[in-house]
């Protein structure tokens, strides 16, 4: 899928991000700010590559725990902090693939050559696009937000969602439609 | 057939996307196509519960670290390791340490560091550097008899390293292969002192900034799954990747202590337990020693100010491995 880069509020860059990193290095309880800034990026980077929500969550957790544990060793060399996180994520991905390969090699199944991990460099524009979109979902009206999460995260049917929200199926489809319109408009307008 | 509303058309396309069916042909509608692009992007939307749970988990960890720290921030961030050291170094005791050093230099292009001789000329303590890591060694003695160890080396060319190791006197366990389950180019040798060396060249990944070093101790253990809670409790280790067989045996696990990792698995076949020695730099030797003993380790040497400038102690884990704990008391930067 080709995505266009939306106008956006830039994440803290350069000096601002450096200050966040330095603050977390001297006081790890301030790691929160870096986590909030990069969670969606790291999650999307991994989710696109493993196509499995549970594995994406495990690896995302691994990346942030490793980042926190090794924050003291991080040295600012001008590259965005995200580049460091993506490198950790790439290694976690490769390690996960190796573990999966071991599991597969101990079974009788033939190995699927198509299951090699995608270790290509991260496409930062696409990652930022998705990270912004994911954050915008939080700012939808509450009921639209719930419909989007039920539909895309839980992958519930319109009928199930209608039952859970005590609304008609038609109303749920309209809420879904309006939510996507809102998200689309905000992404194009750079309103995040 | 009545024309479907945009909301219905959109939902039919979303339904097809979510269950991975080809969407039915609809009249071209650029507006809906744009919404579908947004819908596609939402397939990877993270669970909000996961984001908040992970955040809480990280907060607990930072809070615990703060609460358990008993030394000032300035002295526990960078100065507790000796300069040039990582958090974990294998300490290999052999009979014939000088020859062993020669082997490490010839086989693995180790750079000789310090060498502290005893009056009789034997080696009391020595260090060699391989890549970004240090291996310590000494002549075995009555208190610390020889214990062959298994070490995982990450090198740039496993074939060349393997060949050098054989020329230096090692025997082959496995010639380098691309078929190892790790996915790495991987071979193994045993040196003349009984130590096993896994020689790997990473494929498709880079030993990176999060702690995978050129040298990783590898412990084959009986009931290896019990090692994980022990090192978590005793040393604040973290399990980075645990791969279990269906019956619960550890097929492979990577554990980290600060900036270094070691690996464990359930002893099997020719890879039986060979309890060894590990040198671990910690922020507070006294506190970690006490915590390790509370967690089931046996005291070997209580904390003391070692003549070489470390606060040092030693404990033995329930698997027979000896952990030399140390906090560097000098002022050089790690």
Q: What would you call the structural class of chain B?
A: alpha+beta
The name of the CATH superfamily of chain B reads 2,3-Dihydroxybiphenyl 1,2-Dioxygenase, domain 1
Q: What would you give as the CATH superfamily of the largest domain in chain A?
A: RNA polymerase sigma factor, region 2, helix turn helix motif
Strand order in space, largest sheet of chain B: 2-3-4-1-13-16-15-14
Which residue ranges of chain B are poorly predicted, with pLDDT under 50 across at least 5 consecutive positions?
A: 66-79
Total domains of chain B: 1
Structural overview:
The complex is a heterodimer of chains A (192) and B (334). Chain A is mainly alpha-helical. Chain A has 2 domains: 7-125, Rna Polymerase Sigma Factor, Chain: A; 138-192, Orthogonal Bundle (Arc Repressor Mutant, subunit A), CATH 1.10.10.10. Chain A has helices at 14-26, 31-50, 53-69, 81-105, 124-137, 142-153, 158-165, 169-189. The longest helix of chain A has 25 residues, at 81-105. Chain A is globular. Chain B has one domain: Roll (2,3-Dihydroxybiphenyl 1,2-Dioxygenase, domain 1). Chain B contains 8 helices and 16 strands. Chain B has helices at residues 6-18, 30-41, 48-68, 73-77, 97-108, 158-167, 227-235, 285-294, and strands at 88-94, 111-117, 123-130, 133-139, 150-154, 171-177, 185-190, 196-201, 215-221, 238-244, 250-257, 260-266, 277-281, 298-305, 310-316, 322-328. Chain B has an 8-stranded mixed beta sheet with strand order 2-3-4-1-13-16-15-14, with helices on one face. In chain B, strands 6-7-8-5-9-12-11-10 form an 8-stranded mixed beta sheet, covered by helices on one side. In chain B, strand 15 (310-316) and strand 16 (322-328) form a beta hairpin. The longest helix of chain B is centred in the first third of the chain and has 21 residues, at 48-68. The model of chain B is unreliable at 66-79 (pLDDT under 50). Chains A and B meet through helix 2, helix 3, helix 4, helix 5 and helix 6 of A and helix 1, helix 2, helix 3, strand 10 and strand 11 of B.
């Amino acid at each position: 899928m080709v995505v266009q880069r939306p106008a956006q509020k830039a994440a803290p860059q350069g000096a601002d991000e450096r200050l966040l990193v330095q603050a977390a290095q001297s006081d790890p309880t301030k790691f929160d700010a870096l986590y909030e800034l990069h969670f969606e990026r790291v999650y999307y980077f991994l989710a696109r590559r493993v196509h499995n929500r549970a594995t994406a969550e495990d690896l995302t957790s691994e990346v942030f725990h490793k980042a926190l544990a090794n924050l003291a060793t991080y040295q600012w060399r001008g590259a965005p902090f995200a580049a460091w996180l993506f490198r950790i994520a790439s290694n976690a991905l490769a390690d996960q693939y190796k573990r999966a390969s071991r599991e597969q090699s101990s079974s009788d199944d033939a190995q699927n050559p198509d299951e090699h991990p995608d270790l290509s460099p991260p496409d930062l524009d696409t990652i930022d696009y998705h990270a912004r979109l994911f954050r915008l979902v939080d700012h939808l009206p509450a009921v639209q937000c719930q419909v989007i999460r039920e539909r895309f995260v839980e992958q519930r049917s319109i009928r199930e969602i209608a039952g859970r929200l005590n609304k008609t199926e038609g109303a749920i489809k309209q809420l879904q439609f309006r939510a996507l319109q809102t998200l689309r408009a905000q992404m194009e307008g750079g309103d995040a | 057939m009545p024309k479907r509303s945009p909301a219905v058309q959109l939902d039919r396309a979303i339904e097809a996307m979510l269950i991975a069916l080809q969407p039915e042909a609809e009249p071209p509608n650029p507006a809906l196509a744009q919404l579908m692009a947004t819908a596609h992007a939402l397939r990877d939307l993270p669970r909000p519960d996961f984001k908040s749970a992970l955040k809480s988990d990280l907060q607990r960890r930072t809070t615990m670290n703060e609460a358990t720290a008993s030394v000032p921030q300035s002295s526990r961030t960078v100065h507790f390791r000796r300069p040039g050291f990582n958090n974990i170094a294998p300490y290999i005791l052999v009979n014939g340490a000088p020859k062993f050093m020669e082997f490490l230099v010839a086989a693995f292009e180790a750079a000789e560091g310090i060498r502290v001789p005893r009056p009789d000329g034997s080696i009391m303590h020595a260090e060699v550097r391989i890549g970004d890591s240090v291996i310590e060694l000494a002549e075995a003695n009555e208190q610390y008899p020889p214990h062959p160890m298994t070490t995982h080396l990450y090198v740039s060319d496993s074939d060349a390293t393997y060949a050098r190791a054989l020329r230096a006197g090692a025997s082959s366990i496995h010639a380098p292969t691309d078929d190892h389950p790790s996915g790495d180019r991987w071979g193994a040798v045993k040196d003349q002192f009984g130590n096993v060396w896994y020689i790997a060249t990473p494929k498709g990944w880079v030993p990176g900034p999060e702690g995978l070093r050129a040298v990783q101790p590898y412990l084959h253990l009986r009931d290896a799954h019990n090692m994980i809670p022990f090192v978590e409790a005793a040393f604040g280790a973290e399990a980075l990747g645990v791969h279990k067989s269906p019956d619960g045996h550890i097929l492979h696990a990577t554990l980290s202590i600060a900036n270094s990792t070691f690996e464990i698995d359930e002893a099997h076949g020719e890879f039986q337990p060979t309890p060894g020695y590990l040198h671990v730099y910690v922020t507070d030797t006294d506190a970690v020693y006490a915590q390790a003993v509370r967690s089931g380790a046996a005291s070997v040497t209580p904390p003391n100010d070692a003549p070489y400038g470390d606060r040092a102690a030693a404990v033995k884990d329930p698997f027979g491995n000896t952990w030399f704990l140390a906090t560097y008391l000098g002022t050089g930067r790690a």
